[in-house]
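I'd like us to work through together how a protein chain folds, taking it slowly. To get us started, please write out a protein record for me. Go ahead whenever you are ready, and we will take it from there:
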Amino acid sequence: MLSLFEEYKNGEKIEEALLVGRNLFNRNPGDEKIFSAYFSYLCTLAETLPSFADRSSFAEQANVALAFYSENAALTNESIKTFFAQRQRISAIFDEIEKKNLENNEKKRREIESFNTECLKELYALKDTLQKVDTQKEFDDILAQIGKLDSKIDKDALTDEQSSVYGSLTKDHTEFISMKMRQLEYKKNIAYNRQAVDAFALAFEQFRKNEKQYKDQTQLFHLASTKLFAFDASRLFNETLIYFNHVYSYIFSKLDDDGKLTLTRYSVECERNHGGCDLC
């Protein structure tokens, strides 16, 4: 059986070698030759495998095997010396694994810190870009970039200095985003009000040219739905509303009683176009 273990070990068939070695050792826990072969193989794996988790696992297995062997073997002066040498080897393996783990963790920490720093630099640059955007599309693109960068930052790994910078950037971004949203909304409302004024003016002009035409309810509905009542009053400036009232009052005054009732119903029933009038 020991020859089978050596065959698998030399053939780098780790799972098979471990299976045979474990079986041999469990059946012969006091056999020095079997233990030494199995223990040495576990230590070699603990010293050479790339995965720290695997190395730690095999080191633990070797440590357990050593303790089990010491309880079952016929001890002599020579075997006791060998035991302490083997225990020292295990201790050195654990120390090396811990050292490498610490080095690896420190390397990862530095890499994460460096990556976080680059993300913070990019976020800082986007803060300046955010103030300069002029359109809704540009604004949305910048917000998407900010969100993407923010999601990449490892918040738990931020240094005290980085946390301070991140907090300041978050505060600035929130303020600038709110300010820019107000600016863009105001720009949209200006364009919306321009459309509304143009639509009201066109309604006024068309009605004055042919007042009799709008005694017909179909014609009156078209005028009302596409121009006069096509806009959301909550988005209109006071000046725009004053002009609307002027146009509405003029048209209303020229209609007969039935026309006045119809126009009033249209004012309630017509769907407002919140994005502006495309038919002006």
